[in-house]
């Protein structure tokens, strides 16, 4: 990282002419970033995929952040202070690498963002559009500055604090997880945007801001996904599923069969790490967005990549099935115990886990992304 830290000040002069070993620091309200965990996990996963020891990789990672706490996406686009700081960091990385006789490229953007746009009522369509614009701008500027051919991907999480923000009483704050859905939508329509995990699996110190151990966990998910992505693209292979995401919904008169893109099967319901929630997080809503609390009579895993949702009665066209939205009247909380959440995951944690400094074993399963799907 640069000598002034992972996240140097955005305003005023900053020194970017020296590097020091990468280490997180709790900078009060600025908190930790998860970048150190992401870098470590990238090296571990990438070396495993290549079949070599980590110290045999001729790669040095430079981790830094040009982020700003509490900013809306519109305040991070090109021609803003944060974006200009990002370009300064890319130029500095190029300069320092050249001084050592090493090649340099800007590898990826880790995008931990969206809560303020949820609070302020930014529409999902506007957020997805601006996120695509930002990703394309970073890619173009990185290639221009470094001379690289690599198109840097953007890896993101889905915020899951919509009910905690709803309780703040701002009239523009929606019940629906607009930004979580927007990030998933952007990933579906842009080959350089990847939605990696939902934040309902995390712990929060105030229902909105994650704990340091959850930031570390987020970083590990980012690093693992990025390593898989880089390894695939370098080998000119299709990028494998990086998140547990709905791939297809087949509706019938009395239910819907959901097929998922699964990074590491089989599917499983887990009520140990994420507290149990009705219907494992699935709910059915009328076309005019009214919850039908007794509509679902069964939620069953019927194949390594499929879930069957059974209904008490036929549902009309336009009805919506949601996952991890929460319900009206649920606690105004966030996180894996009390927030809007779901219990569906894959089984990658069978072989991929770690013990954090508190002594808690954390499985790195892929948990289902927050989504909705309408009946045709």
Automatic annotation (TrEMBL):
Name this protein carries in UniProt: Sialate O-acetylesterase domain-containing protein
Gene3D superfamilies assigned to the protein according to its UniProt record, in alphabetical order: SGNH hydrolase
Residue ranges with Basic and acidic residues bias: 333-348
InterPro entries assigned: SGNH_hydro_sf
Signal peptide positions on this chain: none
Annotated region (Disordered), positions in chain: 325-357
Entry superkingdom: Bacteria
GO molecular function: hydrolase activity, acting on ester bonds
